[in-house]
Each structure stands twice: as structure tokens, then as C-alpha cells.
Amino acid sequence: MMLPALLLQIPAPVPTVAAPPESVLSMVISSGPVVKFTLILLIFFSITSWAIIFFKYMQLKRAKRTSGKFLQNFDATYSLEEMLTKPTTQDGNPLYSIFSAGFSDILRYRQARSKDPNFKGKLHLEHIHKNIRRSQNDETHKLEQLTPFLATTASAAPFIGLFGTVWGILTAFFTIGKEKTTSLAVVGPYIAEALVATAVGLAAAIPAVIAYNYFVTRIRSLAKELGDFSTDLENRIEREYF
Known about the structure:
Layout: H1 2-9, H2 24-29, H3 33-76, H4 94-115, H5 125-144, H6 147-179, H7 184-241
């Protein structure tokens, strides 16, 4: 007769709840495949964007420095042939590339005349102008390379992060219906991993949009410098050789 009374005194077992993740990293590792794929994609965008940022910064800095020195020599010379005797940094120097493209026909013409005094060829100013403008466009394109990826990251990363957030919240609501409980200990990890996706998306987008706007301003300034130099070079070639 004592056994039923003792059984009534035994407390009912408490349902166990999975322990929450101890850190953000462990929470990400234990997240679902969709959220995990979203985070990996955002991390890829972030790492690639930072690599482009460092590369473009060094590229534009080198182009500005070398072009400035070249332009000083160009303005200080009395004839274009003097530029051939001055030391010039060729690597990353867009003005040198334009100068070489514009002066190439003149050099070939001089070499042909030195080999054959009876050479009847002529210099064509239109062709020289075409070479200069083509080289200018090529150098501008080199300066603009990779910046579209920054714009893509800035515009797409927040929405990719939002997708991970929405999926995490859907998983949280599915868990509420499955477990029939609104306990924060149950749905909290799903909501947390959803917010992590949003945070990672913003972390990838914010530096990309700042860097993109900065580089676009620098590239426009350099592109204007290339255009002005191309015009000056055309005028000097026409004045000295035609």
C-alpha cells in the first residue's frame, strides 16, 4: 500500500532541451545547410572584395605617382624626342603607354627612313590619333577593372544575407510548430543564426560600397588626366612632325 504513495512523490521527468551553442562560431557550424551555404557565399564575397580593395588601392596609387612624374618630364621637354632619353617608370604608368602608342608610328617611320633613304612612306596623323585614343581607352579600362564586383557585392550581399535571415526565421517557426513550444531556448538558435546572416551580409556590403565610391572618384580623376594628356600629345605631334 505504500508503493503508490511513493510513486506519487517522485517528480515527473523534465523534458530536456538542447544546450545552446557556446559561441557564434559553434552556432554557425551547427546551422542548417541553407544558412551555412548563405554564410559561405557571403564570406566569399567579403574576402574577394577586400582583395580587390587592396589591389585597386595599390594600382591607382602607383598610376597616380608614375603619371605625375611622367607628366612633369613631358611638360619640361622642348621636343618629344627628349622623352625617349629620360628615365621613365613603365610599370603601371598609363601615360607612358599612351605616349608609346602615339609615338610608335613615328619611330617606325624613322627606322624605315634610316634603313632606306628612298623610303616613300608617309606619316598619317589620323592613324596616330587613332592609336592614342585606343590606348587611352585601354588604360581607362584597366583602371576600371574589378570595380564592378565591388558594386555587385554592395548591392547583392544585403539581399543574400536577408535570404539567410528569412530562411532562419522560417526554420524557427517550423520548430515552434514541431515542438509545440515557444520557448526561447528552442527557437533562439535559429533566430540567432538568421541574424548572423544579416550581419555578415552587411559586413560584406558596407566596405564594398565605400571602396567602390572612392575608387570611382579616383578613376574619374585619372581618366580626365589621361584625356587631357592625349589631347596635348596629339597637338605636340602635329606641331612637331606635320
